Amino acid sequence: MMRTIELIALCGVLLPAHAAFAQEAEPPAEYEQLIEEALSESANGNWEDARAAFRQAHAAFPNARTERGIGMVSFEIRDYVDSVRHLRRALSNEVRPLTEEQRTEVQSLLTRALGRVAIFSLANVPEGADITIDGRAVEPEDDGTLMLPIGEHAVVVSGAHRWESSIPVRGGENAPLPMRFEAPVVEDTPPPRITPPVAPPPETGPPDGSLALTLGGVVGFLAGAGVLIAGAVTYFEANGAGPMTEWADVSGSYAITQPLQGIGYGVMGLGAALTIGGAIWMTTGSNSRPSAQLQLRGTF
Question: What DSSP assignment string belongs to 141-174?
């Protein structure tokens, strides 16, 4: 914290005691009284009251010295944004300009204050957009920048576009405002209509493989029937042999009749099952086959 005696010494030049002020316009009568009040409050450490008095004195007679007093007291209050504003103006104001010593001291204090704020360029902000900081509308600085104190701040830029973000300030930042606009909202414009894809008509022909299955079943049934007939013929030939026929001559043929009949019945049954299954597939498969659209629905 700046010592009070230093503040009084630095601000004492505000009093019109120097001959150099003789040619300038005379301040109103209340100016000197407000300056004395500001210095008295500063001496007692009443910084808010001191700043209020300096502001009133500046309103009565704007000059570089009152800007300097406001900037110095604002630094003591830790209102660094306000301090930067007024210290900058103190350096550029030509009414009761600062001495070289005062300029050096103000520049040093300004450098300290700049390290406790962030300065964002508004070059990317659309002209006429409204800027809100922590729920309050703000105006850019005299140089067109946005200055924020240390801390977390909710920033909203609105207009034809809208952008909002929470920006942390650690002090010393000097960069463009990190903006990413949403798409502009166009009133009374209906959303584009999306025509759903038309599903292809279901296939009406027999499904692949059903005809082959049916034909295979028929062939198998006929083959089984042929084996069954061959077994029956062999059986009757063996039983119809004459009385003089030796058993050894017919025993081989008789022995294969039962296996042939079993194979014939089995092949016929399998062929019949395949034929019936293929026929059912042909008649019902064409109506139950799903379309490609239904198959791909879960892919996307």
Answer: -TTSEEEEESEEEEEEEESSSEEEEEEEE-S--E
- In eight-state DSSP terms, residue 225 is H
DSSP character for 120?
A: E
**Domain edges within the chain:** 4-16+27-114, 120-176, 210-288
Class of domain 4-16+27-114: mainly alpha
Whole-angstrom distance, CA of residue 71 vs CA of residue 77? 10
Which residues, 6 or more positions from 237, have their beta carbon under 8 angstroms from its beta carbon? 250, 253
pLDDT lower than 70: segments of the chain: 1-24, 180-211, 213-214, 217, 224, 227-228, 231-254, 256-258, 260-261, 264, 267, 277-278, 281-300
111-129: b or e for each residue (b if 16 or more CB lie within 10 Å)? eebbebbbbbebeebeeeb
Nearest-Å Rg of the Cα atoms of the chain is: 52
| Confidence (pLDDT) at 52 | 97
Residue 272 is predicted with a pLDDT of: 74
The pLDDT value given to residue 113: 97
DSSP code per residue over 63-113: -HHHHHHHHHHHHHHT-HHHHHHHHHHHHH--SSPPPHHHHHHHHHHHHHH
pLDDT value, residue 188: 54
